[in-house]
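Bug #77: duplicate submission created two jobs. Keeping one. Sequence:
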Amino acid sequence: MPIPRRTILRATGTALALPFLPSLSWRRFAAAAAPATPPKRMVFLSFGWGVTNETWFPDKTKTGADYPLSDGLAPLERHKNKITVIQGLSNKFAADAHWGSTFYLTGANRYALPGSSFSNSISADQVAAEQFGRHTRFTSLQLTSKDADQSGHGPGLSLAWNRQGKPIAGVDTPLAAYQKLFGDETLPLADRERMLKEQRSVLDAVLAQAKAIDKTLSKRDKDKLDEYFQSIREIETRLAKEESWMTTPKPKPPLDAPGESLVGEEEVRLMYDLLVAAFQTDSTRVVTYRQPMANLIKSMGITVAPHDMSHYTPGERMAASQRRDKKQSELLASLLDRLEAVKEADGSSLLDNVCLAYGSNIRSIHYLDNCPTVIAGGGAGISHGRHVVLEAKQTPLANLWLTLLQGVGIEIDTFGDSTGPLGTLTA
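Kept job's structure:
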């Protein structure tokens, strides 16, 4: 082989800055004027450990607009006409109850790859990001937490997975998210440009050599090399954008910098504020948030272990689970308040132009059917103010993602294990 393996690994280590690609025309997007019509945005919020089955879901016999919110969702009463509660969705291939975020937005079969015990596919947010992300500094924003491994989320770095089913890293503290969105650039522009150019020459050389050996490889190795090339292409796209935005100052932050030690309830509140700020400044139009359930519970003074709470029985565990449900609904209601308060150029609100999905892959214990689901905002054209109970109890959760993606204008006919869009949501 004309190129040793260590050279490729060394190149991968420098693949943090690649050449600007004129064909992508990022500067054209950067220089474009603000759209007259507010853009669509998508946000996906997910939590592990599920909900209290008996008190979170509304009464199944009372559907449509004239339904009473359940005790667990009661804090959302003031937004009832702008939310939809859905029952009957499930992840067909889900088998691990406490892998909350791993397949939540993908609907993938972990055993789909022969000979492997784990595989995944692209997540719904990244399908939207491929289109929406062309117009913003950040293609998408992944928020997560330091306690993710204790919060019933399972394998993965965030809720997001790329085209190859590989996990996409997220920012795990409000301070990190703030610095990403609004932090000062301390490295001089000339030095950053020089770094991009230097790393560009290394990767170009390695890529040219790697392509030259393609014919000498087995089919399995060619597949691996193709995956490597795709990863390089993704890095090129991200960093081409980085170079094009270098001369564009970051927006003035609409809030003060957060402290470093925020956890639990205040952590969630601030992450919610930051995602609103990201939309408000049009820094990104796609956000996911893998929420810190373990720290949230601790911050509430609850001493029941998160996993034990999921396996609640009447008494202390169930009471703790119900307290958590209400707190999460309070936090969600506050987020909807913030989205509604921010006005767009045409007089509408951010909430009018956001499609927000909130839920979990598990309802309680190890029950993976009837995933807790709330949809909010006007971004996807959903007819809100309703409680929807789907006739098919095992309707793929991917049907919802397909519906929302189509609703915000993404032209796709299928997603994950979907069988079709949910027409009842837009009727």
